[in-house]
C-alpha cells in the first residue's frame, strides 16, 4: 500500500476545486497534507483544518517551504468550525477527505486498528472518552446500538453480550484483546477476507469521534464559508458517510431523492444553495485502486455554491 501521502481521487478533486493563483481553498481534513500540498502547488492559498495534534509534524515542513509556506495555514480544530474561524462567503473551495487516515491506522499507539496491538484509544484529538471507556462503561443496549447503527453489524446484540460478560472479569485496554473477543462472538476466522471485528472497530471509532454529527455540521459550515461559485468536494469511504453527503447535496440542490439533476427544483422551500457538478458519485479508476487499496471504497460527490443564502442550520 502506498504511504499516507497518497490522497485518494486527487485528480478528480483538483478538477472540481479549480485551484490556482488568487483562489482560497479549505482543506478540511489535512491529515498528512497530500491535498494541501497539491493545492498549494497550483498557486492557491490553503487554510487546512485538523483536530489531530500529530498533524503538525506534516504541516511544519510545508510552512517552512519558502514557496508554499506564505500561502499556507494550519488550524488545529474541527472542520465544522471553518465558517466561524474564516468568515462566511470567504472561500473559493472546500475539500473534505473523510474517515480515518492511513497514518492513524499505521500507528499502533493510536488504537484505530486491530492489525497491530495498541491501547484501545481511537481518538482523533487528544481529549474526550476513548474506545476503552465506551466498551468498559456503556450499557449493553447502547453498545449494541452503536455497533448496529455505526458499524451496520447485524449481530450487534450478540457482540455486546460477549463484551459485557468479558469486561466483568477484566476491562478491555488493548485493540487485539477486543478484536479477539469480537472474533469469538461472531465465530469468524482471522484468515477471512474481512476480519470479524472490522465493523465493531469502525463503529467505535465513529462514536468516539462523533464523526457523523461532525460531518453534518461540517457540510453546513462549508455551505456558509463558500462564496457564490465556490466548489465543495467530499470524498467518503463508507455508506454511512456517503448517505449523509448525498442527502445534503440532494436537499441543497433542490432535488427530490432519486430525482434527476435536470428536474425542476422542489417548490416552497429555501432556494437551492448548491448545484451539482456531476450527477451521482465518482469512483476511482482501476489503476488507482490497484496502486492504493484504500481507494476501493472511495466516492467523490461535488457541488458548486449558488448565490442563494445558506440554509438554516439543523436543530
From TrEMBL:
GO terms for molecular function: methyltransferase activity. It is an enzyme of class 2 (transferase). S-adenosyl-L-methionine binds at residues 33-35, 50, 79, 97, 104. Its main location: cytoplasm. It catalyses: cytidine(1402) in 16S rRNA + S-adenosyl-L-methionine = N(4)-methylcytidine(1402) in 16S rRNA + S-adenosyl-L-homocysteine + H(+). InterPro entries: RsmH, SAM-dep_MeTrfase_MraW_recog, SAM-dependent_MTases_sf. This is Ribosomal RNA small subunit methyltransferase H. It comes from Caulobacter ginsengisoli. The gene is rsmH.
Amino acid at each position: 500500500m502506498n504511504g499516507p501521502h497518497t490522497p485518494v481521487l486527487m485528480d478528480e478533486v483538483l478538477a472540481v476545486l479549480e485551484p490556482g493563483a488568487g483562489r482560497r481553498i479549505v482543506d478540511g481534513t489535512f491529515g498528512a497534507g497530500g491535498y494541501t500540498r497539491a493545492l498549494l502547488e497550483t498557486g492557491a492559498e490553503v487554510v487546512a483544518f485538523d483536530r489531530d495534534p500529530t498533524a503538525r509534524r506534516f504541516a511544519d515542513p510545508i510552512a517552512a517551504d519558502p514557496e508554499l509556506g506564505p500561502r499556507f495555514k494550519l488550524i488545529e480544530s474541527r472542520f465544522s468550525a471553518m465558517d466561524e474561524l474564516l468568515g462566511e462567503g470567504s472561500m473559493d473551495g472546500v475539500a473534505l477527505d473523510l474517515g480515518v487516515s492511513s497514518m492513524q491506522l499505521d500507528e499502533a499507539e493510536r488504537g484505530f486498528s486491530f492489525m497491530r496491538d495498541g491501547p484501545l484509544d481511537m481518538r482523533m484529538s487528544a481529549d474526550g472518552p476513548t474506545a476503552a471507556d465506551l466498551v468498559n462503561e456503556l450499557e449493553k443496549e447502547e453498545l449494541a446500538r452503536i455497533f448496529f447503527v455505526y458499524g451496520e453489524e447485524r449481530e450487534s446484540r450478540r457482540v455486546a453480550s460477549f463484551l459485557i460478560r468479558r469486561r466483568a472479569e477484566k476491562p478491555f485496554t488493548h485493540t487485539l484483546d477486543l478484536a479477539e473477543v469480537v472474533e469469538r462472538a461472531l465465530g469468524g476466522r482471522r484468515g477471512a477476507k474481512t476480519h470479524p471485528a472490522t465493523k465493531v472497530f469502525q463503529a467505535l471509532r465513529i462514536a468516539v469521534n462523533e464523526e457523523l454529527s461532525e460531518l453534518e455540521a461540517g457540510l453546513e459550515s462549508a455551505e456558509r464559508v463558500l462564496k457564490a461559485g465556490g466548489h465543495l468536494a467530499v470524498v467518503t469511504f463508507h455508506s454511512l458517510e456517503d448517505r449523509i453527503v448525498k442527502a445534503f447535496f440532494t436537499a441543497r440542490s433542490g432535488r427530490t431523492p432519486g430525482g434527476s439533476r435536470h428536474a425542476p427544483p422542489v417548490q416552497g422551500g429555501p432556494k437551492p444553495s448548491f448545484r451539482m457538478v456531476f450527477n451521482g458519485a465518482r469512483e476511482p479508476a482501476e489503476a488507482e485502486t490497484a496502486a492504493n487499496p484504500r481507494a476501493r471504497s472511495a466516492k467523490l460527490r461535488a457541488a458548486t455554491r449558488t448565490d442563494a443564502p445558506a440554509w438554516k442550520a439543523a436543530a
